[in-house]
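Hey Z.,

So I finally got round to the zinc ion thing we talked about over coffee. Here's the setup:
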Amino acid sequence: MSSFPENQHNFDYSNDSFDKGWQNDDSFGENTPSKGRAMAVPFVLLGGFCTTVFALVVNFFINVFADFDPFVSLLLWGIVPVGAFLFGLVAGSGYGITARLLQFFPAKRFIILIFVLQLIMFFVSRYAEYKIAVVFDPNPPGFIEVYQKFVEGFAWQGKNGNPPIPLGKLGYLLELATAVLFSLGALVGLGTLFGISYCSQCKVFMRKQTQFAIPASAKRKKIKKKDIAGQEQLDRENADVFKRVTDYVLKIMERLNSDEHNNVENIIAMLAEIQKEASVPAKELQQCWHQLSFDLSCCPNCPNFSLNIRVAVTNAQDKSTPPLTGLLSVLYSDGQFKSVEGFGKIGSSCKF
Ligand SMILES: [Zn+2]
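And the result:
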């Protein structure tokens, strides 16, 4: 699924472009997007700042009182500081929650800004820890000296009662990985917003209207390699189901393409019909190799809607799953097709 086209505005803090600069607001035909969401930026930053300070303070107290550094002590495969990532998740939750509440859809450059901010906050917290540690020291050693000692003093736990092995210069790599993973974890909160449809005209998150899935292949069956006739039969069954599914998608695409009938009530009625005709009990659906899912969200303020149709593999671990010819998905939003993959060839008559 291709992402929405990036807006082309440069960094510019003038009032007009500020709004467009920080939000992923595609131009919406002749309708100028309403201003106002840029007002959310300081609040989103403040929300994230609060949770970041909270996470860093909790980390500090665990460090001091439990004598355990959760950032670098929880290591995955012995080298990946997964603890830093988990603390990053908490730290960044404020960005995601505030953005969701204030209907702020982050542009990619906003995500980059947050990543950099979290990196800065991470190193500021290291400096703050130093300041607290030397607060009662009349002749405190310099920060660089203390920090070098701290980083080069990271040590692997000695196994079987052996003494810990200091990392030395490798400690810098671990420190860098810790900072990066902490900052990446902080992006998850904002990242979840990309899974929610957004009305770029009204600048609000859309509401889920309908979501269901129907079989896109035959039911899973074990067929012996020697059984050529059985295999052919299964292939035919698969092709039949897939053809039916494709017809549904084409019908919807045709409707979306027609100027008079692409309003949301029509689409809801079509989806209801498909659901009635083709949906099966959940257990049965799980037995199919592939599923076709429909996901319709509507703007609470205007007739804009977002329809996401895609074929997905039911169980990625199942080695008997017949291959799909590429990813098959259709995304229709803001009154136009945002992406058509796989169905593109079939639906080449569609206007984009
Ligand atoms: Zn709207």
